[in-house]
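worker-03 picked up job from queue 'complexes'. Input manifest follows; four sequence lines, order preserved.
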Amino acid sequence: MGDQRIGILTSGGDCPGLNAVLHGVVSAAQRRNWEVVGFHEGFEGLLPPGSFEILTAESIRGIMPTGGTFLGTTNKGHFTPRTGWGDRNPSLAAELLQKARETFQTLGLAGLIVVGGDGSLLTALHLSEDGLPIVGVPKTIDNDLEATVITFGFDSAISCVMESLDRLRTTTSSHRRVMVVEVMGRHAGWIALHGGMAGGADAILIPEIPFRAERLAEVVVERTQRGCRGTLIVAAEGAAPRDGRQVRSQTPSGETRLGGIGDWIAREISERTGQECRTCVLGHLQRGGVPTAMDRNLGQHFGVRAVELIEAGDFGKMVSFQNDHTVAVPIAQAVHRLRRVSPGSEFVRTARELSIAFGD
Amino acid sequence: MGDQRIGILTSGGDCPGLNAVLHGVVSAAQRRNWEVVGFHEGFEGLLPPGSFEILTAESIRGIMPTGGTFLGTTNKGHFTPRTGWGDRNPSLAAELLQKARETFQTLGLAGLIVVGGDGSLLTALHLSEDGLPIVGVPKTIDNDLEATVITFGFDSAISCVMESLDRLRTTTSSHRRVMVVEVMGRHAGWIALHGGMAGGADAILIPEIPFRAERLAEVVVERTQRGCRGTLIVAAEGAAPRDGRQVRSQTPSGETRLGGIGDWIAREISERTGQECRTCVLGHLQRGGVPTAMDRNLGQHFGVRAVELIEAGDFGKMVSFQNDHTVAVPIAQAVHRLRRVSPGSEFVRTARELSIAFGD
Amino acid sequence: MGDQRIGILTSGGDCPGLNAVLHGVVSAAQRRNWEVVGFHEGFEGLLPPGSFEILTAESIRGIMPTGGTFLGTTNKGHFTPRTGWGDRNPSLAAELLQKARETFQTLGLAGLIVVGGDGSLLTALHLSEDGLPIVGVPKTIDNDLEATVITFGFDSAISCVMESLDRLRTTTSSHRRVMVVEVMGRHAGWIALHGGMAGGADAILIPEIPFRAERLAEVVVERTQRGCRGTLIVAAEGAAPRDGRQVRSQTPSGETRLGGIGDWIAREISERTGQECRTCVLGHLQRGGVPTAMDRNLGQHFGVRAVELIEAGDFGKMVSFQNDHTVAVPIAQAVHRLRRVSPGSEFVRTARELSIAFGD
Amino acid sequence: MGDQRIGILTSGGDCPGLNAVLHGVVSAAQRRNWEVVGFHEGFEGLLPPGSFEILTAESIRGIMPTGGTFLGTTNKGHFTPRTGWGDRNPSLAAELLQKARETFQTLGLAGLIVVGGDGSLLTALHLSEDGLPIVGVPKTIDNDLEATVITFGFDSAISCVMESLDRLRTTTSSHRRVMVVEVMGRHAGWIALHGGMAGGADAILIPEIPFRAERLAEVVVERTQRGCRGTLIVAAEGAAPRDGRQVRSQTPSGETRLGGIGDWIAREISERTGQECRTCVLGHLQRGGVPTAMDRNLGQHFGVRAVELIEAGDFGKMVSFQNDHTVAVPIAQAVHRLRRVSPGSEFVRTARELSIAFGD
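worker-03 finished. Artifact:
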């Protein structure tokens, strides 16, 4: 295979390790004398005349230790469900596909690497099914994609949670306070579970194990009675009480965190126990920062493998990590299947042995 | 001066460097063959029969790199204004003073080191005026005590702000978002100013410079038009709009941060510019964590000096830092005088040269 | 199974995550109302009358975020090969076993958890074969035990290497220098490979792939000619040139690092290329520090599992991690089998795609 | 003053905060509509035809949190004493001055900001005395320039020392070892003193207080007898024993650290006490890494002030920091005067109160 040109884009929420993927892609492409076109702001960059830049070892020098994505990203735009892209608006879908095809032809792309999560991989699948040479790289900071055991970003996120708990532990302990720390995880509790356990949380609330505010209050009281210095509770943003009560009054845009689960829990505990209870919402802190060694290495691996898939002409596939090796799986297999915490899993069992309460 | 026994307590909100003070006190006392009594939970530990433990080099081994306070603290309790302690309730004040005096006599204390902020130093002053041998060490994470140029905790707090901005910068930039980061500082903007400048904030809002939401929105729009990738706004919790509108609907206990200034600003900008705008409230993260080198060194210095003041019988004084040296100033001089950011100061001028907007 | 008493000791070189194991053991034991005896300085603590303390949740409060081991350790002492313990001195071995047995009986230990590496697990095996109720937890910062895919300490070590490379990269780049960073790994190159890749090393030298100084010098020259700003070389301490020349002049005690492989390589490159070449030996920095989230979680898992093995009476086994789960394997299977980097493995292949030179 | 063009160069060893200076200069220049020419590799970039690039807010985006210098630097080259530049070789000096003048004229520079230490400021002084419009910014990671109380880089360096001691403490303590940590400071002990004190060193050796190996060995033995877990000794690279014995066998190039003071001390202690004693040479780790908040703020301040000096036509001056304010002092006053630790200073006295030994 002679000199050629490939493209790459990063789509959806940002995530530590994205720049390591870019580093891997550009390095592997360079060894093959391929040119790499980096599209800006996710799929939006594909719209003619195309918004992109040529990526070289020099232009991306020093990006690996940085968070975010050099190329920019968006979780809005034309290619998202809100435009009706996909099933709901076939004519728009056809139009966007046609535009993407144009950009491929104009630039002479031999392949496009799409780095994205659930939704972005679905878009990638549409492009692929339309005949475009697509290769996927899974991106999910929540680590909730069924098709890969682990992906980059997750380790950095739980490190952020752990470091925050280390910080909050001393103040909680000095004042004998109760603190609720709200972390990412709308549908899966991986970040709360792994981050909370590493940070020595006293209770961890996850979407997969509905909790009872009453039980949680008991845990706090028991700890106080035993003389424990404060209580640290980690709650995934998707954690929910067992009785299904509505705890969140979101604005239509879903952009405000007022009345998030953390505040709700803090209020409940405060009212039930009479103890001072504070909330800390980690929010976007979890998405930024210097990526951990694991995330940089996973990112680089995935980037290199994606180039190899293009070289092999193995399109419509996504890089995945299983049994300590990277493998290629059909993109179709990856989308819309969430990996959730099993309440009976070894990890949850260990957490219970560590006297971590789940509020159930 | 032969072998004797001294006491120490930490009072008020916790602060990185408190354990370094303890380390300094215990080290200097040990060289004099003095015994150190560490009282628990601030002044509360003074109430008979006294809640305390003997501090030795061995018992506090390894505490210097940790946040919080080994002794525990409280910003409630009997000796705070809410009980009417002090001027408002003379009979209670007399009773508490008598109890403290009892503990001094029972334990045979040659001196007591009080590490605390504004309010705690006022209590220390009362005890001192009542004839008890008191020495003060200033503790204010906000760095807003007039009597000392710098004190421990502040550098760790601005490091936390800076690191958080480093984290948020990449995600803000990847998504071209506006982010409002709410930091400590009810009455003085030091943390917002120094932390924001170090973290490369695009705008900094402080209590000393009332801002206009309209002007802030203009800044955001101008930046977008110039092609800047996102805007990072740091707001001290005490920042307030120029028109004095009520921006905060606090609960009576003042403990909830719902409707804090950060959220208010985010809403204002979002409505005025149509751009997505998120809030991140750093809160207690700023009080914890591994203290910086400066805070550990200041803390140790202050602890050693406090012991020397007791040795010299120089009571009613507080350790202070001025012109690169520690000095002793009357406690009376330290309380109730806030050091605030001067809008015309060199630091603000530099910030403006860095194109940091103050929204004025 | 009623209330009982178990023991634990940490042996060999220290390693981040040891305190997490202690945390896991004490937590799981506490739930069973078991008492935990923590022996000091590895196996030495077993010698009558025994040097130990009772571990409780309170006594080990706050140790999880700290490096080292709360119990102390040694890589010397009576139970090491240097005393001829084991095969070489059967009478000494018999005597030591008898002493250990005495301590077991005096204290009424229902089981002993030995946390240690290769050598310590061999000692554990001897004790087990002698009929004592032993359970092993593998500890190898180098990640070179065949019986477990991963163990605690390794991730913290590669994080240290990565952070050091991040630091050195800027100075190397500013001055266009060559820097050789010597890292741990006498027999296996895992730390050099994973840490170097995460830190963006330009060359990685490992024991498993003998290098040629000549080739390394070529890499440096090529990079200079291409305009690269400096070259970062990571060398495992056990890396060796292909021609087998003696590069190290160790003292009998093996304790000095003068003339280590890093210095040798720096001299070779400097002489062959005329370029300034510095060395940095990370040494013990890699063993300390705050353990990463992964290492804390692995440590806690292993500690809990070890208690469960004792509960099940499953002695002579070691906790191990395989296919994302913990399993129990015979200790006999774990000792004396090193897991080394395969030169043809996926990881090495990815590194080559990233243009990392191995000097071969 | 209308639109104009100014230059900046960074010279000598690299130092955290250099990029913050660049950030400050470019920001302040941009507000004045000035163009900034950044010269590469220190003064070398001045040699015709000039090696430089135009610095804009966009081109230096994101550099503030990074170590090193965006512009590159050198501590060799034509303008250093080794070429005889200056007094020793007047004809060379005249030739280089002429070349620099040419570049100034060709580019039409209204001023040049030189960021450098002792030696580089001397070169700047020569250029200034030759009539070129020069402004200086002091750069000394050792904090040993008489003309400024503090400069950027120092706080980052002592943070690195402190963090390294935090790491080494746990391993030293677990194994009850003696560890000698060699840090920067050939002529002044500021880094050893401040970094060692923050990191809880048990002994600190600095050039200003000659030590006795015999006394140091006594300290180690006393600590062992008191049951202390290990001993951490911090030694400035310029520390020297009182009897003036030769401890260092440097190569002519001075580039090897074999036989540095750290190794010498370790050998002495080991021989005198029989205890295991290791060395760790921090070396270049101290120069890199993410700059601290203080260093970023000092750097930005200095950069802004330097632009203001050019604006005011106040050439031949250097920005300096005294009594919490920046001031301008004649460059002539800054060079060749070292600020050293006074053995009788408050800081040393505090260290002694903390039971830190100086070996004297």
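worker-03 released lock.
The longest helix of chain C spans residues 154-175.
Chain C touches chain B at residues 62, 66 (CB under 8 Å).
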